[in-house]
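Model the whole thing, not chain by chain.
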Amino acid sequence: MNEQLQPLKKPTRVGKAGRSGTQDDIVYAHIFEAILEQRLAPGTKLSEEALGEIFGVSRTIIRRALSRLAHESVVLLRPNRGAVVASPTVEEARQVFFSRRMVERAITELAVLHATPEQLNELRLMVREERDSFSRGDRGAGIRLSGEFHLKLAEAAGNAPLISFQRSLVSQTSLIIAQYESGNRSHCSYDEHMQLIDAIEARDAEQAVSLMMHHMDHIDSKLNLDEESASDDLHAVFSHLLQTKKRGGSVSAKG
Amino acid sequence: MNEQLQPLKKPTRVGKAGRSGTQDDIVYAHIFEAILEQRLAPGTKLSEEALGEIFGVSRTIIRRALSRLAHESVVLLRPNRGAVVASPTVEEARQVFFSRRMVERAITELAVLHATPEQLNELRLMVREERDSFSRGDRGAGIRLSGEFHLKLAEAAGNAPLISFQRSLVSQTSLIIAQYESGNRSHCSYDEHMQLIDAIEARDAEQAVSLMMHHMDHIDSKLNLDEESASDDLHAVFSHLLQTKKRGGSVSAKG
DNA sequence: GATTATGCGTTTGTATACAAATAATGCAAA
DNA sequence: TTTGCATTATTTGTATACAAACGCATAATC
């Protein structure tokens, strides 16, 4: 019955993701976190009733949470056909990265101007957590913390519209990584994150922006967005059939 | 009973704002249009039941429309206290304009690269409509079309995340204009819009961006965001009591 | 044998009923 | 007259019931 929702495990503790908000905030945060940690794969069907049972709330709440996620383009809401985790196409991925470059540049410049020592401390703390997660082998948490770092940086910039936009972009980026990351090495982004904080603390705007732009380059150099621009949806469908577990070089050529 | 919703008139024709979507799309579009045309003033209470009666749908639909509007920061959704049309503070207004500068620059550069002749034609058509509206004295429609011009330009740029962000920023800008515009002359933006299209058609990126930035300057030079930074909410409360209809110079001094 | 039609089961869309929270009103006391 | 409190009324939050749409499976027809 609920076999479509295999990756979603019932969260026993409402601690981390559940903020002190209303019920739909909790559901939203949990699904958002599940996507950020890639426990929910792109294309996964999100049945309202199943989710309602899992979280112990009615469909009304689930529906609102999905609506918010859909507005951030993290979830695709097809009329009369339910919600699925979005599967960004290559073109959509490019657009997201373009926007992110623009936003991250602005955020970095603002953070250099406005970030308080407390915020810089918090950022450092997050990077350490991120590093620990990766070294512990908890890739999911690492990716989530990496995303939250960029979100926190947006908060340090202190521009509300930018924060909300960044939230949408970061979660979409996570989806894109889940879908297109070439299985090379893991995200060793924490090193770049730390350098970035140093530059911001030194109030060196030029250096900070330069580091951020290189960071962006590194992120999308790990993806293979060059291929499959033609057989788009089809490839997404067949990808897990062709290379179920063996991530290898034999498929690297376009073909 | 419904005296709080005085500015909202029941739209007899569903033509312009009502797209071929589901019911909540129609409600969303109507409220959005009403805000864009400033028939709904900042702070106006948006009762779910009243709106439901007006549009002939249940609260469920209204609720979804309000939720979408809230996510675009056009409507403020206070827990257990209902929805109101947002009243941006001076600081929020500054943040919106900062973001808009950033986005409009990117949009202009992309439009120079990607705008098709058809899109340029459509843009010109919109500017003519805008000009006609102003010369006809229909200031509301003029402001709406001015906003839709910037939205259309975002579409011509062809970047989906940017479009959605721009939608949010444009509607917030309209709110800000409603709240802070000094009653000088009307928005003669259509002239600048037309020049902008010319520069884009000529594929002159530098000129187009320069025009756009000046356009942004003009927009916020019409606002008086410099004052009232201290007595923020209080002033908003008293403003319509002090100068109900007489827009004059006697109140211009900060005091 | 392939393709289209039809019925059934499941899932979403919408309305409404009930519970909870907030705002308004009236009364009493200082 | 004003301030504080208690009660009432209105409004929002949530759950659920019913209707409509979709997908799948079976069956009938070409």
